[in-house]
C-alpha cells in the first residue's frame, strides 16, 4: 500500500465497561512469563445473565479461578444474532464482545471449549429509555443551485421542556492557519428539522453539533461547494465520481444481504500514521461505535542509521539535529495527541497492530527494512541477526506503548511488497520468518500477519514474486516446529490489479467485490498447498480462512479503473462472516470520505491549506466517491449498516 506523502514533508520539517467472568483453567508460564495453553482445561464457570440496550456494546472478561485471564479462545455462539451478536476478541482471547442490535428480546449465548462442558447465559436486549439522538448523515449544499438544506432530527424518549439545539463551527486547528475562518452556514431548529442556510455566499465545510438535554450530542458535517468539472489527474483517468451509477457500472441495485457477525472476524483498518491529515482518532472513534481495532502504518528502519537496528515511524531519523526537531514534533504534536492518546483513552490500544514495511520501505529495502539490515550487520552470525531483529521489534513496540503509558501490544503486521519480494532479499525474508517463528514459539500471545500483493488469480509465482514470500514463511515456521494455528495470518491486498484486469472484468459484468473474492479464494488455495508441501497436512477451507485477512483499497484504486464501492465492501463483509475470516482491514482510515478533507497550513510551512468538503479527485485523504458520507466504509466493515 502506498504512503504517498509524509506529514514531515507537508509541514516543512526535514468506551466500554469490562466485567470479570470466572473460569477454571490451568495455566503455565515459561521463564519469560508468556502464556502457553494447556491441552486439558477443567471447565468454565457460570456466567451471569446480561442486559443490553439497542445499539450498545458490552465487553466481559473471562478469567481463570487463579485470577489469570482465560486465553485459550473459547467458541461463542448467539442463538438469535438478530437480537444480540457475541464473539471472542481474536487479539485478546479472554474478552467476549456483546453487541445489542435493533430487535428486542432475549438470546442465549453458548460458550464452549473442547473437552469441557458448555456454559450458557442469556442476553436481554431492551429499548433505551433515556433520551438519545439518532445519527444524521453528512449534508451537502451546492452553491448556485441551493440556498438552504433541511434535514430531519429524530430524538427518542423526549422529555417535556427540553429543546433541540444545533451549532455550526468552522474547523478548528489550534494556532495553525486555515483558509476558512468562519462557519459557511447558519443552522436553525424548526420543529423536528434543522434548516441550514448559506452564510456570506462562501464555500467550505462546517462541523455541526446537535444536542438535546442529557442525551449524548451527535456530530456530522455540512459541506458547501460549487459544482464544477473535475479534471483528471496528470497521466491518470477519471478518479472522482459524483454519482452512484458512475461508480457502479455493473450494478442495478444498492441492496446487499447482510450476514450476521460470526463472532470472530474483526476489522482493523490501516491508518497512515505519518500522513498529514485524516487521522483524528478521537473523532473517528466517536463516530464509529463498533471500531475497536486499528493498524498503524508504517514502521521502518531509521534511514539515517546504518550501523545498528533502530526503528521509527516512516523511517524518519530519530536523532533530531536540533532540539524539538522533526521527529520530536511528529511524536509530540501529531502521533500522540491525534492518534495514540485517543486510542488509549478509548481502551483500544490493546487491540492496536503496528505494520512494518509498506510500499515506500519496499522500494528501498537496504535502507528501510530492519530484517535486511540485520543480516547485513551480522553476515556470519545468523543467531545474532535473529536476536538483534527480535530485540528491535520488541523495543519499538515498547517504545510506542510508553508514549501513552500502555502495555506493549503484541500484534504486528508485515507488509512485504515491491522490491522486498525480490529473490536477492529472500535470505532476509527468511530471517524475518525465523525471528517471528521463534518469538511466537516462546510466547503464543504474539499475533503476526503477513500482508502481500495479489491478483484475482492469487499470489504471483516465479522468481521475484509473492508466492516465494509465503512459501518461505511456511517453511521456516515448519522448521521451527511452530504449530499451524500460530502461523502468521496471510493478508492479501485485494487492490491495484491493473487497468487491463479491471477493464476485462467490467466488460464481463463483474464487480470489484467479485474480483476481491476471487483473489481471496485463489490465495486460500495457495496457502493450503504451501501448508501441505511443508507441513504435510491437508487443512480445510475453513481452517485456511481462519489464517487469513483481507484488505481492499476503498474507492478509486491507484490503478484507477478499479473502483471499490460501498456495495463491494458490503459483499466482502458478508462473505467474510460466512467464511469465518480472521479479520478485515482497508486502506485507509485517512481517506474514508468522498469530499476533500480540511488541510491546515502550518506556520512553519509555505504550503497553503485546503478547504474541506469540496469536490476533488482521489487523494490520500479522500477516496474519490463524492456521493458518500465520511466513514461510510468503516461503518460497513464494522457491521454498522443502519445508516449506510
Could you tell me the number of beta strands? Answer: 31
Helical residues, percent: 25-40%
Radius of gyration equals 25 Å
The main pleated sheet reads as:
8 strands, mixed
Oligomer type: single chain
Secondary-structure content class: alpha/beta
Could you give me the name of the CATH homologous superfamily of the largest domain?
Glycosidases
- What are the low-pLDDT stretches, counting only 5+ consecutive residues below 50? 3-40
Provide the β-strand percentage band.
Answer: 15-25%
Helical region count? Answer: 15
A few lines on this structure:
The chain is an alpha/beta fold. It contains 15 helices and 31 strands. Keywords: Signal.
Task: Kindly describe this structure.
With 644 residues, the protein is α/β, with parallel strands linked by helices. The strands form 9 sheets. Strands 21, 22, 23, 24, 25, 26, 27 and 28 form an 8-stranded mixed β-sheet that branches. A 4-stranded mixed β-sheet has the order 1-5-8-7, with no helix packed on it. Strands 4-10-9-6 form a 4-stranded mixed β-sheet, with no helix packed on it. A hairpin with a 2-residue loop joins β16 and β17. This is GH18 domain-containing protein. Residues 1-23 form the signal peptide. It comes from Mesoplasma syrphidae. InterPro entries: GH18_Chitinase, Lipoprotein_mollicutes-type_CS.
Amino acid at each position: 500500500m502506498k504512503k504517498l506523502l509524509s506529514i514531515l514533508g507537508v509541514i516543512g520539517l526535514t468506551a466500554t465497561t469490562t466485567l470479570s467472568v470466572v473460569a477454571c483453567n490451568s495455566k503455565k508460564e515459561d521463564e519469560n512469563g508468556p502464556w502457553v495453553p494447556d491441552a486439558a482445561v477443567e471447565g468454565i464457570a457460570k456466567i451471569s445473565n446480561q442486559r443490553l440496550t439497542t445499539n450498545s456494546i458490552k465487553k466481559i472478561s473471562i478469567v481463570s479461578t487463579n485470577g489469570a485471564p482465560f486465553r485459550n479462545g473459547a467458541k461463542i455462539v448467539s442463538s438469535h444474532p438478530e437480537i444480540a451478536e457475541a464473539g471472542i476478541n481474536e487479539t485478546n482471547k479472554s474478552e467476549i464482545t456483546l453487541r445489542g442490535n435493533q430487535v428486542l428480546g432475549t438470546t442465549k449465548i453458548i460458550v464452549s471449549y473442547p473437552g469441557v462442558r458448555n456454559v450458557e447465559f442469556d442476553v436481554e436486549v431492551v429499548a433505551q429509555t433515556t433520551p438519545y439522538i439518532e445519527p444524521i448523515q453528512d449534508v451537502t449544499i451546492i452553491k448556485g443551485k441551493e440556498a438552504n438544506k433541511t434535514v430531519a432530527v429524530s430524538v427518542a424518549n423526549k422529555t417535556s421542556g427540553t429543546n433541540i439545539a444545533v451549532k455550526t463551527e468552522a474547523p478548528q486547528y489550534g494556532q495553525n492557519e486555515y483558509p476558512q475562518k468562519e462557519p459557511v452556514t447558519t443552522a436553525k431548529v424548526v420543529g423536528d428539522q434543522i434548516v441550514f442556510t448559506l452564510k456570506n455566499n462562501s464555500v467550505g465545510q462546517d462541523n455541526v453539533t446537535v444536542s438535546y438535554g442529557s442525551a449524548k450530542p451527535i456530530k456530522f458535517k455540512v459541506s458547501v461547494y460549487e459544482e464544477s468539472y473535475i479534471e483528471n489527474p496528470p497521466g491518470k483517468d477519471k478518479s472522482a465520481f459524483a454519482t452512484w451509477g458512475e461508480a457502479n457500472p455493473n450494478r442495478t441495485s444498492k441492496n446487499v444481504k447482510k450476514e450476521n457477525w460470526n463472532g470472530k472476524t474483526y476489522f482493523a483498518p490501516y491508518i497512515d500514521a505519518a500522513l498529514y491529515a485524516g487521522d483524528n482518532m478521537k473523532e473517528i472513534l466517536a463516530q464509529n461505535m463498533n471500531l475497536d481495532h486499528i493498524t498503524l502504518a508504517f514502521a521502518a528502519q531509521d534511514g539515517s542509521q546504518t550501523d545498528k537496528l533502530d526503528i521509527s515511524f516512516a523511517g524518519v531519523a530519530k536523532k533530531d539535529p536540533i532540539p524539538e526537531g522533526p521527529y520530536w514534533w511528529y511524536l509530540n504534536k501529531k502521533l500522540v495527541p491525534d492518534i495514540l492518546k485517543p486510542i488509549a483513552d478509548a481502551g483500544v490500544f490493546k487491540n492496536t497492530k503496528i505494520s512494518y514495511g509498506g510500499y515506500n520501505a519496499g522500494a528501498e529495502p537496504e535502507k528501510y527494512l530492519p530484517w535486511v539490515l540485520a543480516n547485513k550487520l551480522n553476515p556470519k552470525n545468523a543467531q545474532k541477526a535473529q536476536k538483534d531483529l527480535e530485540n528491535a521489534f520488541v523495543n519499538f513496540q515498547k517504545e510506542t506503548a510508553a508514549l501513552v503509558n500502555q502495555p506493549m501490544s503484541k500484534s504486528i503486521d508485515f507488509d512485504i511488497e515491491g522490491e522486498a519480494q525480490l529473490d536477492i532479499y529472500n535470505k532476509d525474508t527468511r530471517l524475518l520468518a525465523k525471528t517471528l517463528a521463534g518469538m511466537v514459539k516462546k510466547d503464543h500471545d504474539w499475533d503476526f500477519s503477513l500482508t502481500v500483493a495479489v491478483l484475482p488469480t492469487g499470489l504471483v509465482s516465479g522468481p521475484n514474486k509473492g508466492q516465494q514470500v509465503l512459501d518461505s514463511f511456511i517453511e521456516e515456521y515448519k522448521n521451527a516446529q511452530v504449530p499451524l494455528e500460530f502461523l502468521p495470518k496471510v493478508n492479501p491486498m485485494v487492490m491495484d490489479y491493473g487497468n487491463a484486469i479491471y477493464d476485462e472484468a467490467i466488460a464481463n459484468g463483474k464487480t470489484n467485490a467479485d474480483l476481491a473474492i476471487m483473489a481471496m479464494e485463489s490465495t486460500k488455495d495457495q496457502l493450503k498447498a504451501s501448508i501441505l508441501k511443508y507441513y504435510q497436512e491437508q487443512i480445510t477451507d475453513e481452517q485456511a480462512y481462519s489464517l487469513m485477512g483481507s484488505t481492499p483499497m476503498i474507492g478509486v484504486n491507484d490503478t484507477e479503473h478499479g473502483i471499490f464501492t460501498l456495495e463491494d465492501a458490503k459483499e466482502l463483509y458478508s462473505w467474510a462472516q460466512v467464511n469465518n475470516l480472521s479479520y478485515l482491514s482497508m486502506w485507509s482510515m485517512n481517506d474514508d470520505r468522498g469530499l476533500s478533507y480540511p488541510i491546515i497550513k502550518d506556520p512553519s510551512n509555505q504550503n497553503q491549506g485546503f478547504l474541506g468538503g469540496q469536490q476533488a479527485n482521489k487523494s490520500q485523504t479522500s477516496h474519490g466517491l463524492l456521493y458518500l458520507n465520511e466513514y461510510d466504509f468503516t461503518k460497513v466493515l464494522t457491521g454498522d449498516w443502519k445508516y449506510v
